[in-house]
Write a structure and sequence with these properties.
By secondary structure, the protein is of the alpha/beta class. The protein contains 13 helices and 13 strands. The two termini are about 45 Å apart. Keywords: Membrane, Transmembrane, Transmembrane helix.
Length: about 375
């Protein structure tokens, strides 16, 4: 059975009558997807009303059986296009097979006829360790792909559960994150180790600025007073800093400290990982010690990211707990691996490792508890 190519989209009640030009551009693609899933919640949180499918949309759906509406219970904002299509995949397809791919598109753009096929070829060559788009930009150290320029990612057996867990733990209930799906999905890709590749040069080399043209829906964007990068930056800054001015002031200081600590721990984690891969064998050939070093470096890099994430998204001691966890857990393992057997410090470092593990657990629990308070 050939791998599936599934396109995910979402919309608003006010935008549904104008969604057909975007859908028609997908019909006209040189490589048509196997499925297009238009994920819609029962009720729109932004517009406070239920969805009604307009006649022109119903007619298009009847003409193209590979297009369908997938109803979801929760409105997750623009992120519904990802969460909804993953929910559909989980319910109606099941475990992904090798090569299955999702593409996320916006409802207010008519895409060039070769856009999907072009990106499909590029993403297929990259594999599951990458996410690709025709345009991605940096925001506070994150490489951020966006649905306006198509986002392509291949599925692994655990992708659905990982995305759902990340959304539930870090995004759900936070109004500041509601409109910035580009940002929280970029953070998800980063935490999972997926590199984002931008293929903007493929567009500009043809004398073009974008791989789409705006449709009538573009005039009713929720943030239509701003365009392009300015709109994205303001929305994302709001997601990090919150709507209240006083909270923004104090939060930025905390976030700045978190960023600095995250950078230091992350850089050291990368250095330790590189040393473990290339230099540690000069000190030991014990497979168990080599694997312990690798575990310590991986935990350090993961929790270095979480120092920054928790600084931005929740209040509480989570950043400090994650930082101390890195020092105690990873630091003690580095020492235990490097120190010779019988060295006096080994007796001191041994009991410190589980303390570091407990600090990691406490950090995650702190995020959960403070997230619930925030709601």
């Amino acid at each position: 059975m050939a791998p599936l190519l599934v396109v995910g989209m979402t919309s608003l009640p006010s935008r549904l009558p104008g969604v057909c030009p975007a859908l028609q551009s997908i019909v006209a693609q040189s490589q048509r997807p196997d499925r297009l899933i238009l994920s819609l919640p029962r009720t729109s949180a932004r517009e406070g009303r239920a969805y009604e499918l307009p006649q022109n949309l119903l007619q298009m759906l009847s003409q193209h059986s590979w297009m369908q509406v997938h109803w979801v219970e929760e409105d997750s904002g623009p992120g519904t296009k990802l969460l909804g299509v993953l929910d559909w995949f989980d319910k109606y397809v099941g475990t992904p097979m090798d090569g299955d791919m999702l593409m996320l598109l916006d409802d207010d753009h008519a895409y060039l006829p070769d856009a999907i096929g072009n990106l499909w070829q590029k993403q297929r060559g990259l594999g599951c360790g990458f996410v690709s788009s025709f345009f991605a930009y940096f925001f506070r150290g994150l490489m951020v792909p966006q649905g306006a320029d198509i986002v392509a990612l291949q599925l692994e057996p655990s992708t659905v559960q990982k995305v759902q867990n990340f959304y539930r733990c870090f995004v759900k209930g936070d109004q500041a994150c509601f409109l910035v799906d580009d940002l929280w999905t970029a953070m998800f890709y980063f935490v999972c180790g997926r590199q984002v590749r931008s293929f903007r040069d493929d567009v500009t080399s043809r004398g073009l600025e974008t791989i789409y043209s705006p449709t009538a829906n573009a005039s009713v964007e929720a943030l239509m007073d701003l365009e392009g990068g300015a709109r994205r930056d303001r929305a994302m800054l709001g997601a990090f800093q919150g709507p209240d001015a006083q909270q923004r002031g104090s939060g930025s200081r905390v976030a700045g400290t978190g960023e600095a600590m995250s950078g230091v721990l992350g850089a050291l984690g990368v250095a330790m990982g590189a040393f473990g891969a290339h230099g540690l064998k000069n000190y030991t050939s014990d497979p168990q010690l080599l694997e312990s070093w690798k575990t310590a470096a991986n935990y350090q890099m993961l929790h270095a990211v979480m120092v920054a994430v928790s600084s931005f998204l929740v209040k509480g001691p989570a950043p400090k707990l994650f930082s101390l966890g890195c020092v105690f857990f990873s630091g003690s393992i580095y020492g235990l691996v490097l120190l010779p057997k019988g060295h006096g410090l080994r007796k001191l470092l041994g009991p410190i490792t589980p303390i570091g593990g407990l600090l990691f657990i406490a950090g995650w629990l702190s995020m959960t508890l403070n997230s619930k308070r925030k709601e």
